[in-house]
Structures are given as structure tokens and as C-alpha cells.
Design brief:
mainly alpha, TetR family transcriptional regulator, elongated, Tetracycline Repressor, domain 2, DNA-binding, 2 domains, Arc Repressor Mutant, subunit A
């Protein structure tokens, strides 16, 4: 993956890489076939700067996916999955994840090599999600016989669908409340 993974960067180089990755997300979300030159222009850097940091377009996309997956992992961490009460953790994590997924949709949608950093982070996030769901199950919020991997998949689907709706609320807390309510109570009448 280029220089970004090999050694720590100076502050200005780190800002440059961050600007490139943010521009790459914007440009590639709009046009997945965009060139390195288009990304460089959007980042306000010379094309040679991108090539100095990333050996190829694929290396840039891999770095983008890894960066977004790290942001997603931090979003989960910020929800205190191991220490907050399960319902609080689920809500916080969901709101945080919605923000990251909304801002980094292209990068998080890139198909990854199973051995990549991004894929490893995604697997770890799935394991941590099941752990939070297990805590919720132990607290009586989820049926004791529920298949938690299935619940995780439904949860992921609810998050994904909430990001695609044009008429859905955009406030992450409102969406998180809706997702958690639907996950835990379904769509039947609440009695």
C-alpha cells in the first residue's frame, strides 16, 4: 500500500493524505471510474503527490477502504460496547455508525480482499456487534433463543436501508432510535 502504511508521516504529509482520502471518497462516490488526476484536483494537490503516497489507483482505494473501516471501528468504540448498558451502547453505536457510513459510503462499499486490513476490521466489527447483541440478549432485550448472527445481519440491513431512504429522517439519533426500536420490537403493534 504506499508510504502511508510503512512509516509514520510528518504532520503536513498526514494532512495531505487525509485530504487525498477525503477527496477520493467524494469524487469516487460520484464517479467510481474517476481518475487519479480528478482526485488530485479535488484534493488540491498535484497528481505526483498522490503517486508519491499511493503506488496505484488500487492502492489508493485500499487505503481509502482501510481508513473508512478504521473510522467505523472508532465509531463502535465510541459507543462503549463493553461498558455502557446494552440499549445505550446499541443506540450510540448505531448513531455513530450511521454518520460514518453516510460520509464514507463509497469506501465502505468497496469489495475487499479477505486478507486486507479493511476486511479484518469489518470482521472484528461483526464479532463486536454480536457481543453487544449477546449483552442485550442477556439483559432480556432480545429473545433468549434468537440467532444473534441473524439479528446482526438484520441490524446491518436496517442501517443500510435507513441510509438509502430519501424520505427518512437524517438525524443520526432519530434514525438510531428507529433502527433499534424496529430491531427489538419489529413492526407489530407495541402492547
Amino acid at each position: 500500500m504506499g508510504e502511508t502504511a510503512a512509516q509514520p508521516l510528518r504532520a503536513d504529509a498526514e494532512r495531505s493524505v487525509r485530504a487525498i482520502l477525503e477527496a477520493a471518497e467524494r469524487v469516487l462516490a460520484e464517479d467510481p471510474g474517476a481518475s487519479m488526476e480528478q482526485i488530485a484536483a479535488a484534493a488540491g494537490v498535484a497528481r505526483t503527490t498522490i503517486h508519491r503516497r499511493f503506488a496505484s489507483r488500487q492502492a489508493l482505494i485500499e487505503a481509502l477502504a482501510s481508513s473508512a473501516a478504521r473510522r467505523l471501528a472508532r465509531a463502535v468504540d465510541d459507543g462503549r460496547p463493553d461498558t455502557a448498558p446494552p440499549l445505550v451502547a446499541m443506540h450510540r453505536i448505531t448513531a455513530n455508525v450511521l454518520q460514518v457510513k453516510g460520509a464514507w459510503a463509497f469506501a465502505l462499499g468497496v469489495a475487499q480482499d479477505p486478507d486486507s486490513e479493511a476486511a479484518a476490521l469489518q470482521r472484528d466489527i461483526a464479532v463486536r456487534c454480536v457481543a453487544v447483541l449477546k449483552r442485550a440478549q442477556d439483559a432480556g432485550l432480545i429473545a433468549p433463543d434468537a440467532d444473534l448472527d441473524w439479528v446482526r445481519r438484520v441490524y446491518y440491513a436496517l442501517i443500510g436501508e435507513s441510509l438509502h431512504g430519501t424520505d427518512a429522517p437524517t438525524d443520526p439519533d432519530t434514525l438510531a432510535a428507529r433502527i433499534i426500536d424496529t430491531l427489538l420490537h419489529g413492526t407489530g403493534p407495541h402492547t
